[in-house]
Design brief:
This protein has a single domain, classed as Rossmann fold. It contains four helices and four strands; from the N terminus they run H-E-E-E-H-H-H-E. The protein has helices at about 15-20, 65-75, 80-95, 115-130; strands spanning about 35, 40, 50, 135. Strands 1-2 form a two-stranded antiparallel sheet. Strands 3-4 form a two-stranded parallel ribbon. The two termini are about 25 Å apart. A hairpin with a 2-residue loop joins strand 1 and strand 2 (about 40).
Amino acid sequence: GRIMAIMGPSGSGKSTLLDTLAGRLSSNVVMTGNILLNGKKKGLQYGGVAYVTQENVLLGTLTVRETVAYSAHLRLPPTLTKEEVDGIVEGTLMEMGLQECADTIVGTWHLRGISGGEAKRLSIALEILTRPRLLFLDEPTT
């Protein structure tokens, strides 16, 4: 795989560019031009692209493991067995370095939980569950 960074000052359009590339723009926005993937014009089919937003959108009352498992049961193919889904959940927790906090609640503004870095890694974990071909990360280090 490859990693590419888009850098620029605040307000320069980095997030808008990512939204455009990921097909997340509002339907009333007019866009012209072509998007090439590996030099070829391709449509970004559902499931082939994942997007992690700047803000972590997580349920604060669930544990890290429950959060990943919940997402896995909703997003992975229904043909997978419970054991297969559980294996993917545990593998993803390990891959993202979340084993130590797996049984800690995510937390809210009034309920202490995982750290900001762990929350960001959890947000990424939720998107890589489906093994997308293309992963967009908007401000992954904030």
